[in-house]
Amino acid sequence: MSCCDLAAAGQLGKAGIMASDCEPALNQAESRNPTLERYLGALREAKNDSEQFAALLLVTKAVKAGDIDAKTRRRIFDAVGFTFPNRLLTTKEAPDGCPDHVLRALGVALLACFCSDPELAAHPQVLNKIPILSTFLTARGDPDDAARRSMIDDTYQCLTAVAGTPRGPRHLIAGGTVSALCQAYLGHGYGFDQALALLVGLLAAAETQCWKEAEPDLLAVLRGLSEDFQKAEDASKFELCQLLPLFLPPTTVPSECLRDLQAGLARILGSKLSSWQRNPALKLAARLAHACGSDWIPVGNSGSKFLALLVNLACVEVRLALEETGTEVKEDVVTACYALMELGIQECTRCEQSLLKEPQKVQLVSIMKEAIGAVIHYLLQVGPEKQKEPFVFASVRILGAWLAEETSSLRKEVCQLLPFLVRYAKTLYEEAEEANDLSQQVATLAISPTAPGPTWPGDALRLLLPGWCHLTVEDGPREILIKEGAPSLLCKYFLQQWELTSPGHDTSVLPDSVEIGLQTCCHIFLNLVVTAPGLIKRDACFTSLMNTLMTSLPSLVQQPGRLLLAANVATLGLLMARLLSTSPALQGTPASRGFFAAAILFLSQSHVARATPGSDQAVLVLSPDYEGIWADLQELWFLGMQAFTGCVPLLPWLAPAALRSRWPQELLQLLASVSPNSVKPEMVAAYQGVLVELARANRLCREAMRLQAGEETASHYRMAALEQCLSEP
């Protein structure tokens, strides 16, 4: 058997490559080529390698590429099997006068022929060849050797066929194919473009696993692509715009890549472009915004101009797409523009270290207002049949981001849309699994082929909570929300989310958005308590909410790192207790006593005495747990003190319970131990309010305060009301 004969036998693989275009019936193939069956029989009856070589050569000569179909390929496989190709791939001795890769080339050609059959491409005997095939991609050799090039083509055909099977990507990744493809692409040898195409497919199918197995190699490819993108002056830069989002890692993007990507995008978007050129660039920018926020945009004049340009282009695209009724919306592009608008909203509301200057912020807010108007116009036309479409979810998301920061503009339009938003949120809440699936579809639609991160929460209601928090302060929007049943929906949502944080659930794996959502719900309820107290008294859902608050606070105040949520729960519960004071649940039941004991713990531990060098008197300071979050906590604390004060005369059992907790005694002791000058007037007023109500409500409280030198302390702090109360019998 000569080297030339071996090469001719290898052409069988090429026949397999083209066979998918022609699928005649087997009897038709036989009638056109009657000798084929004789040669297949010889192949089946071959007793050694030499006879198999000869039979393969005969089959190759008898079959033209256009005549081979899937059934014929399967018959060739049945005749050859995997044992012969396996030996060809692993042998290290070639016939005299042949390069050492010729036998391997023939083995790969046979596998390429077999892999044209999807069932054979998923066969274990093909899958276990993945590591061997992967090594062929980076093997050194003469780049002009036709046989070597043919083997590389066949190798890519095998790997591509495996990638097309259901579990193929996982097997390729485990077999080291991703690293081999990266090295083949970076080497820019023969077939490197096929390496890139297969890499794109694997990343689209299993991004997380690819990065886990081959992060250094993929980062090297990203560096190469980013550098090419930055330097490109021809149409290839638009093709790279489409490829690059797939190569951005799930972790940190290297700074040099961000620099090159930003520079390339600035040059593209700063030019006059057609939509097919501009849209991939906008989608790449959106992917970067999703992955890095604004960190990829340089600080300074050039960066601020670039960001302003990005947001401006995004707003124009949104308006063009949504304002023209009857035009087909390019949902993937518009959703990417939403991500860029969201970046603009974040930068316009950032007080410190913003990339934008104040005049730019004013201009962009005006432009984004017009784009949000277009979003509202679109949502007003959405019927029930479209509510589960991912683009609607994306549109609600950007509106929620806008309303979280701005509710004064477009007020009329927002009020007009509120009934739809409540119905939409309710629909997705009641079908929570579909809501989560929608979130993933939105991420796929907009910027990434993979599941979303925490910035894409899986329910519409969470997106709307910040905006509704602002709107419940205003009479008109609040009345609409109440009329449409939003408070009841919010109560159900709060109770559902609270279950995720209850004992028995691993809170360490919960995204921060769950706790933030609970806090925002509390803020909305606080607004309703203040502005619509009658609703709290008559709607049964608030009774259920009160019961949950009472049973949850005792354990919540003991949990490290959850003080802010505990403050929200305590303050909301105290304010609601004042309105629901006649409820049986608040008449000294174990749950109510446990709640108020926990509330006292929260209120009493905020401040401590601290000695100061060179002074006989200590000063009043924040306790360590409260100090770091006092800016977010202090309003709740003062409101909680005021609410507790209001509960004392309404709940006769509360003053004796407070006395048993020793809070009034310890509070007077604390005030007596520190310098009055260290206690701010608002603190003095808050403390006096609680002490006065406790003293008025219960004789034993008055006596305990007198024993704690309460009159003297009241005099030192000029607490006239407390001093007078304690002086009375």
Q: What does this 3D model show about the protein?
A:
This protein has 729 residues and is mostly helical. It has a domain at 563-728. The chain has 39 helices and two strands. Strands 1-2 form a two-stranded antiparallel ribbon. Helix 7 (102-115) runs parallel beside helix 11. The longest helix has 40 residues, at 192-231. The N and C termini lie far apart (122 Å). 42% of the residues are buried. Mean pLDDT is 86; it is low at 4-32 and 446-457.
What distinguishing features does this structure have?
729 residues, mainly alpha, two-stranded antiparallel ribbon, 2 strands, Neurochondrin, ARM-type_fold
| Number of helical regions | 39
Q: What fraction of the residues are assigned to beta strands by DSSP?
A: under 5%
Shape: elongated
Q: What is the quaternary state of this protein?
A: single chain
Topology:
Blueprint: H1 3-18, H2 26-32, H3 35-45, H4 49-62, H5 70-80, H6 83-90, H7 102-115, H8 118-121, H9 124-127, H10 130-136, H11 146-163, H12 168-174, H13 177-187, H14 192-231, H15 236-243, H16 255-269, H17 275-292, H18 301-323, H19 331-349, H20 358-379, H21 390-403, H22 411-430, H23 432-446, H24 460-471, H25 475-483, H26 486-500, H27 512-531, H28 533-538, H29 540-556, H30 563-579, H31 590-604, E1 607-610, E2 619-622, H32 624-627, H33 630-647, H34 654-661, H35 663-673, H36 681-697, H37 699-707, H38 710-716, H39 720-727
Helix pairs in contact: 1-4, 1-7, 3-4, 3-5, 6-7, 7-11, 10-11, 11-12, 11-14, 12-14, 13-14, 14-15, 14-16, 15-17, 16-17, 17-19, 18-19, 18-20, 19-20, 19-21, 20-21, 20-22, 21-23, 21-24, 22-25, 24-27, 26-27, 26-29, 27-30, 29-30, 29-31, 30-31, 30-33, 31-34, 33-36, 36-37, 36-39, 38-39
